[in-house]
Design brief:
Helix content is 46%, strand content 15%. It has 434 residues and is of the alpha/beta class. It folds into 3 domains: 3-48, Up-down Bundle (Transferase, Pyrimidine Nucleoside Phosphorylase, Chain A, domain 3); 79-324, Pyrimidine Nucleoside Phosphorylase, Chain A, domain 2; 331-419, Pyrimidine nucleoside phosphorylase-like, C-terminal domain (Aldehyde Oxidoreductase, domain 3). The strands form 4 sheets. It has a 4-stranded mixed β-sheet, sandwiched between helices. Strands 6-9-11-7 form a 4-stranded antiparallel β-sheet, sandwiched between helices. A 3-stranded antiparallel β-sheet has the order 10-8-12. 52% of the residues are buried. The model has no long low-confidence stretch (mean pLDDT 94).
Amino acid sequence: MRMYDIIMKKRNGGELSTEEINFFVEGYTKGEIPDYQVSALMMAVYFQKMTEQETLALTMAMADSGDTLDLSEIQGIKVDKHSTGGVGDKTSLALAPMAAACGIPVAKMSGRGLGHTGGTIDKLESFPGFTTALTRRQFVENVNRIGVAIMGQTADLAPADKKLYALRDVTATVDNMSLIASSIMSKKLAAGADAIVLDVKTGSGAFMKKEQDARALAQEMVKIGKNARRRTIAVISDMDQPLGYAVGNALEVKEAIETLQGKGPADFVELCLTLGSRMLMAGGKADTVQEAKERLRKVIADGSALKKLAEFVEAQGGNADAVYNMGLLPAARIVRPIPAPVSGYINHITCDEVGICSLILGGGRETKESAIDLSVGLVLCKKSGDYVEAGEPLAMLHANDETRAEEAANRYLKACSIADTPRERTDFIRGILE
């Protein structure tokens, strides 16, 4: 088998066999096939697209290219939740303990943030002492004992995907639905869950800006999951403004805790109930969406979800007292309002710009090596459709540096547009694919 023939076949619109895909993925991972040949193949795929069978074969080849997580020692049906990323997305912080309190074992691998989107691990490290550096044995034991564990992604999980993504990033071949879907799903399949619930974001703060693209990606990933014999559900949710009100690591942790206390923002609660209900149904803990949502509301009301968060934090070395005393979490030195320049209705908040404001304050990474300030960020006071008087705060800015605070405040003002009439409200949940 020759790479030259595989490139030509795809260039001419042919369908690659599973054997041909396995050949190039294995050869590229081992360094036996050069970048320039795989670049040519990726460009051919970009223009000629991939069939459903090709996409599945590529996903499985990447998933099998390194370590796979064996979760067979964990009791029950393991359900993983994955978000395509956004601003203020602290969903795992609240949803994991909610699902665990309902009897769903949550064995999750998460990453750190890069750029304007935050990472679950960074947010969890707001709890003093918390670590995701678990051995496989600790990971499994924690899930069996308390129902939830989150560990960092290993370097050897789907290494072919890392190499291919880095190459696609510099050869203008990222934006292909099959390649995006196989990249996400290869890591999910390698992580060993029995069922997968996907939160596919759409809007100005999402990777998929247009709803039709988000829907197409969701459909592609659900098909891959089905063909890989994993129950897969995709929820398409709005990311045209930040999720909830808090943006920034410790600030988002506080909002997640408040949600488990029954005081969460409406959009965030709706998302947790929508995703959580599908997790419970996939895990055999509820027969209907209504029954599942009632169970999730109950574990918030009786305090068992909050208790589960404290158990989880303590099991991974963190100070569980911070769950009940949020004053123990990192706090910024400067807290000041960003006043509205005029009166009117919030017409639009450019979501990714809000993420960049947090980045400017020090709450995100420009590079993987950058240090982050866990205490900084913004808490929105007004969201799209709300009325604001001139001088009233649009948001509260949390900072440790005056110069950065001023820059972030000016940028936030530019990200908000204010109109004389209210904008039409749209559904927060845009669709569910099963």
